[in-house]
Amino acid sequence: MNKTAAALLVKFAITFIAALIALSLIIPNWWWAVLVIAIIGTAANYFLGDLIILPTYGNVLASIGDGILAALIAWVVALVWPVVEITIIAAIVYAVIIAVAEYFFHMYLESSEEVQP
Asked: By its UniProt entry, which Pfam families does this protein fall under (predicted)?
């Protein structure tokens, strides 16, 4: 497994754990619904946050953008999938956890020459 694939797996794990905390412990969502949100959020944050925003605007804006995007994705999934519930508190907690985790993840990406952002 190359370093980029390993970094994406770590990114997914971070997103899934953050989603479990915010979307399963704060409000009662099924783990498989949280898994779907984490998969969509990981893909969106990778393509938009890591490939576009991070190289152009830097770590802080990319991390904030990743947190906001993750919360928006969870909110949209809850709107279109009746089995998923979300509250404003859960969305904020999810956004903050993602933003903080992504800040450190981006520092790793920028310091590693073997990982292609």
From this structure: DUF2512 (PF10710)
Residue by residue, pLDDT tens for the chain (117 residues) are 688 888 899 999 999 999 999 999 999 999 999 999 999 999 999 999 999 999 999 999 999 999 999 999 999 999 999 999 999 999 999 999 999 999 999 998 888 766 655
Helices (H) and strands (E) in the chain, counts: 5, 0
Integer Cα distance of 27 and 33 in angstroms: 12
| Distance from C-alpha of 84 to C-alpha of 38, rounded to nearest angstrom | 13
In a domain, 116, yes or no: no
Q: How many domains does the chain have?
A: 1
| Domain interval for residue 89 | 3-111
